[in-house]
Structures are given as C-alpha cells and as structure tokens.
Amino acid sequence: MTKSYFHLTRGNSVKKNILILVTFLFILNGCAQFQSDKVNQRQWQEKSINSNVDAINHSPQFSGKIRVTSEVNEGAVILIGQATDEETKKNVESYVQTLPGVKKTYNQIRVRPLISFDQISNDVWLTTKVKSAILSEDKLDNYTIKVVTENKEVFLIGSAPPEEAEIAANIARHVAGVNKVVKAFTNKTSDSSSVNSTPATNLNDSSTTQNNPDNIVDDSPMVTDNSGLIIEEPNTLIDESDVSN
C-alpha cells in the first residue's frame, strides 16, 4: 500500500512539472510574439514616415521647392536634402512633426537650389565608395552604419561608441569627392552599457556651411536627445591633399 502511494505521488509530481513547463513555454512564446509584433509595428511605422516624406516632394505645396529624404530610427527623423528657402524648410519640418510615430525631428535640409541629376548620380557613387571603405575596416565589423550622401555631404547613421563612430567618419572624410561628413549616432559605450542622454534641440545649418559649400569636414558641435541620438555637424575645411581616390 505504501509503495502504491509512492508511485501515485511521483506521478502527480511529474504531471505538475510538465504543466508548469508547458505554462512557462506558453508565456515565453507569448512574450516573444509580443516583442516581434512591436518590432514589426515599429518597422511599419518607419516605412510609413519615409513614404509620407517622399510623397511631399510631389505635393502641390512643395513641388519644385524641395528635394527631401528621411532616415527614421525609433521615432527620431533626420531630414536630409534641399529647400529653396528657409520658410519652406521650416514648413517641411512642421509637417513631418505631425506624422504618427514621429517623436523628434533633426532638420538637415540645406537652403539652396535643388541639386541636378548629375550630382545625384555622383552622390550614389560617393555612397558606394564610402560604404566600401567602411566595410574594409575590421574595427567596424560589429556595427551597422548607414551611409547617405546628398550634394557631396556624407551622413553616417547608426549605433556605435564614440571611438568607432569617429573611425567611420575619418574614413569617409578621406574619400575623394566628399566635402562634408555628418555623424548621426546613438552613442553607446564599447560595452553597450550606457547611452548619452543630454537634452538637445534641432541642429540647423551653420553659417559656415552656408558660406562654404565645398570642402567642409569635421569640427563638430554636438546635438543629442534623451534617446541618445547625437548629430555632429562639421564646420572646418578639408585638406584636399589628404584624401584618397
């Protein structure tokens, strides 16, 4: 009788453990699905923001006055391109700030005539050269850095410690044809344990940028927000003898 009781108790214990395990796996799967849904929702929202920004280039209000693209990361929107006047530049930013999912805008639109098709083609080639140069640097293997070029200005966008971000910028500024390098990074320490959280405002064009449209690189006032995004806009001249083809 005692032996039968032992087997019965052990059987109940096994069933209980199995039930706990199944419940745990169900909860774990639910958490994973929740995280996946959040990622998918964020990606969809970022695509929606980019699509809306692209659409305003052809809207009656802005057609012929702007050439603007956007880069979005967790609600932070970097606006890149040209506007024919300051008011139009501000109006574009005001519109983008009303889009669902936009938490903050960084206005890197330049007030100048819209660039030509030839310059657009040249920018594509510069992007290819900068990407290739960055990919060849072993110290940057663990980081994903997006390269966007607009009118010979190279924007480096990603998440990396300050040292690695500067390595990437230094590589870009030594590529022939690049006039300016703007860093836009989520500034993490090397062990990814902390994020810069200094308050900030939008970064606008400096007077040096407006007066010296050519051969400008990095001497960088920094702007950051509480999500850790830092934009460093350069304002010193490049030494043309110190670049590679």
Folded structure, characterized:
It holds the Pfam family BON. Keywords: Signal. This is BON domain-containing protein. InterPro entries: BON_dom, Lipoprotein_DolP, Transpt-assoc_nodulatn_dom_bac. The protein starts with a helix and ends in an 8-residue tail after the last strand. The longest helix has 55 residues. Among the domains are: 77 residues, Histidine-containing Protein, Chain: A (2-Layer Sandwich), CATH 3.30.1340.30; 84 residues, Histidine-containing Protein, Chain: A (2-Layer Sandwich). About 15% of the residues have low confidence. Strands 4-5-6-9-8 form a 5-stranded mixed sheet. The chain is built from 5 helices and 10 strands; from the N terminus they run H-E-E-H-E-H-E-E-H-E-H-E-E-E-E. The chain is 42% helix and 23% strand. It has 245 residues and is an alpha+beta fold.
The count of DSSP E runs of length 2 or more, i.e. the number of strands, is: 10
Helix content: 40-55%
Report the β-strand fraction as a percent range: 15-25%
Q: Could you say which overall geometry the principal axes of the C-alpha atoms support?
A: extended
- CATH topology title of the domain at 115-189 and 228-236: Histidine-containing Protein, Chain: A
- Going across the biggest sheet, name each strand in turn: 4-5-6-9-8
* Oligomer designation: single chain
pLDDT averaged over residues: 79
Distance, first to last CA: 90 Å
N-to-C order of helices and strands:
HEEHEHEEHEHEEEE
Largest sheet: 5 strands, mixed
CATH architecture of the domain at 115-189 and 228-236: 2-Layer Sandwich
Low-pLDDT regions: 191-226
Q: Nearest-angstrom radius of gyration?
A: 25 Å
Structural class: alpha+beta
Look at the structure and give the CATH class of the domain at 115-189 and 228-236: Alpha Beta
Helix count equals: 5
InterPro entries: BON_dom, Lipoprotein_DolP, Transpt-assoc_nodulatn_dom_bac
Protein name: BON domain-containing protein
Keywords: Signal
